[in-house]
Amino acid sequence: MRYRIAQRFLLSNVIVLSLLFILLHYLKKDDLTRRSPKFDILDVPFNHSFSLGTGSPNDSHSSKSKFIIGILSQDSQIELREALRQTWIPLLKKDLPLTVEYTFVLDNPTPATLSELRTKQDIVFLNSSYSGYAVRFGEKMYKWFRYVTEHYPDATLVAKMDDDVFLCVNKMFQRLSNLKHRRLYYGWQHNKEYMQIDEMFVVLGMDLVLRINQRKYCYRERSQCNNKSELVDEGWGGKSIGLWLSVYDDVLTVPDNQNIIYYNRAMKPPIDIRKEDNFCQKYLLYHKATVSDMVFLHNMTTAGETNK
Ligand SMILES: *[C@@H]1O[C@H](CO)[C@@H](O)[C@H](O)[C@H]1NC(C)=O
Ligand SMILES: *[C@@H]1O[C@H](CO)[C@@H](O)[C@H](O)[C@H]1NC(C)=O
Ligand SMILES: *[C@@H]1O[C@H](CO)[C@@H](O)[C@H](O)[C@H]1NC(C)=O
Ligand SMILES: *[C@@H]1O[C@H](CO)[C@@H](O)[C@H](O)[C@H]1NC(C)=O
Ligand SMILES: *[C@@H]1O[C@H](CO)[C@@H](O)[C@H](O)[C@H]1NC(C)=O
């Protein structure tokens, strides 16, 4: 009898201990997965909005939130700038759920771009210290965010995008209006290990912009920079922003790859836009678009709207 009680006691101890081991194992695993990407990655279905609110007591329902877009362009890309000005940019003036303002963002003034500024009134010069493909693009991001902080302190969302992007204006701003959080980090995600939203279209909530703006851009050699306190340049702008945001643990990351068509020089276009019935009914954005792609997509979009 005593022997059987002892046996039971032993058995229950073994069971409790094993349960504890299993629990510890899972806790440890959970801790690891939680720690490696320091981001809350949120899957927000198309029509859904954050239940968290906008995070700002001032974002009242009566006034629309402000969205500022900087379109990074090279001096020579005048044809792309003109294509944007004639296709989706005029649609920003329409009645959208957000008040949207845009500006082209160029490195440094030249006689030609100064004259373009005089006629179009939509260019900001960053006075960049560097030029060249993927050379210290982080500095351009840093200067753009600093410019926005100074000139649009009342913005809620800020974007940096490239001049070879076609935006489906109505759908994109309906989507972003549902996501208008001051700690949002939105766009097309490159990889999960190292959180990085591609710089061809990256949206940040204003609180994140303000935090970045409080740090110093590191002009020294990379190895002599402090990753945590300073803004270290990764060469690419998107990678740099990803690194800068990685020190915060409350960033609301919304990768929207299924609604965005993205490809680059190293990839083939994943779809043929000329075989789509109405691109902007399915998607929010196309990169990378040539001038003729933009004219085609714009024509398709506006034709679709007048048919309705
Ligand atoms: C999604 O939003 C659109 C536009 O506001 C609306 O017409 C549609 O009914 C919504 N769909 C769902 C499933 O809520
Ligand atoms: C809210 O509004 C007040 C008064 O206009 C201003 O002082 C404050 O900085 C605003 N806060 C935010 C987070 O915008
Ligand atoms: C670049 O310099 C010009 C002229 O000094 C100035 O007006 C402009 O605001 C500067 N750009 C930025 C982004 O600070
Ligand atoms: C900064 O980041 C680089 C690259 O990610 C890394 O090699 C380096 O060790 C980091 N430096 C510090 C001080 O964390
Ligand atoms: C625009 O669409 C119309 C039909 O909707 C078509 O006839 C025309 O060729 C298109 N133009 C371009 C530039 O794609």
Automatic annotation (TrEMBL):
This protein's record includes keyword Lipid metabolism: no
A Gene Ontology cellular-component term: Golgi membrane
UniProtKB keywords: Glycosyltransferase, Golgi apparatus, Membrane, Signal-anchor, Transferase, Transmembrane, Transmembrane helix
GO molecular function, one term: glycosyltransferase activity
InterPro entries per the UniProt record, alphabetical: Glyco_trans_31
Family membership noted in the UniProt record: Belongs to the glycosyltransferase 31 family.
Protein name, entry field: Hexosyltransferase
Organism from which the protein derives: Sinanodonta woodiana
